[in-house]
Fold this protein.
Amino acid sequence: MTMQRMVIRLFLACAASMFLGDSAIAHGGVVQEEDLCVIKVSFLRAHFKVYQPLVSSHEQFCEDLPVASESVFVMEYQHDALATMPIDFRIIRDVTGLGRFARMEDVEKIDDLDSATVFYQPALVEPDVFTVMHEFDEDGDFIGIVSATQPDTNKVYAAVFPFEVGFTGIGYWPFFIVVLVLLQLQYLVMSGRLKRWMKGRSSSAAVALLLCAFLIAPAGFVLAEDGGLRVTYSPVAGPLEINRIHSWVLHVESVGGAPIENADIEVTGGMPEHDHGLPTQPRVTTELGNGDYRLDGVRFHMRGYWEITVTVTTEEGSSVVVIPVQL
């Protein structure tokens, strides 16, 4: 993975976690599929939800909780084997320092798990639905740990889900906007478009045009792995949605800003963390000119981190661009 891809992936993950509510993104052992939150304990699955009846009545939360209050954690089994397994449930303070990026291997490195534990339900067998209640007395970052033991073999399956109590989802949005503006300005400078726009124009007209360009510019840009070209991409019909066919406009140009025309473009993609591909086969249907290509048939069927791989072939050779998408 190149440094460019690492920076973009980290930025997207942080931006999503800062700007979106818990209904829009999940993490750790809990993932959002369609309108349901699902906890994955190895290959075992259960519908997962949290209630705070004293403050939000019947409202369901996927993980992050708005206030420190009495909280009811519910798992409705989707795998019959869970009904026969002893299940224990633990909540610890996040002493890993990793926040929502903490995983099971990080929990296993904690020297004194008991001292970090704020709640523990010993293992018990519950048919169909597993329910525990804990009253949080302070805001903060926590990690939930669910363990299920196979009765015949004593094999333990576990899942962790980092979450936050006192979560608003908007605390860092000003920083997010500043970063977005800086990224857009970087794109305009690197592509040479800012210089071309301002050339021969009055200062007031140049400023107005720059503001318009920021508002209508593509959603993002990615540098090819070999550094030879750059791809900007923009959904045609607004924000990406689950289970909807999308069309994109891809703009392909050299690092110096020259549009690349008459290129052969192949597009694939998938979720690297889940090891599966796109449910559709996107393809470029029209070359629009000036380095622009219309891409049709893009569909995402679940939330999470996706990578769209764009292979651009010209007379000079092939370059690969990986576009990160966080839904």
Remarks:
- The helical segments are 3-19, 53-56, 104-108, 113-116, 173-191, 193-198, 203-216.
